[in-house]
Amino acid sequence: MEVFVDARGLLCPLPLLRARAALASAAPDDVLVVLATDREAPIDLGALAVEARRPFSSVWVDGAWRLELAAAEQ
Fold first, then answer.
1. Which three-class secondary structure state does DSSP give residue 1?
2. pLDDT, tens digit (0-9, with 9 covering 90-100), for 9-41
3. Residue 72: pLDDT band by 50, 70, 90 thresholds?
4. Residue numbers of the domain that contains 15
5. Measured between alpha carbons, how far is residue 54 from residues 10, 11, 63 in Å?
6. Is residue 74 situated within a structural domain?
7. Domain-embedded: residue 10
């Protein structure tokens, strides 16, 4: 299942904090999707993905970053 966090318009560190909170309540097989406009968000979320041992991807779409932390690696 996808868990969405809409952090568009929020500045660092809010996208990271909201993503961390959502990740804490997500199941290991959930995909966390964060929409963010802050230019630091891909760096922060990439570091969170490493910490959580989740594959990470980012793409700029329609004026916002779409950042995905995939299901946890087993």
1. coil
2. 999 999 999 999 999 999 999 999 999 999 999
3. confident
4. 2-69
5. 23, 23, 25
6. no
7. yes
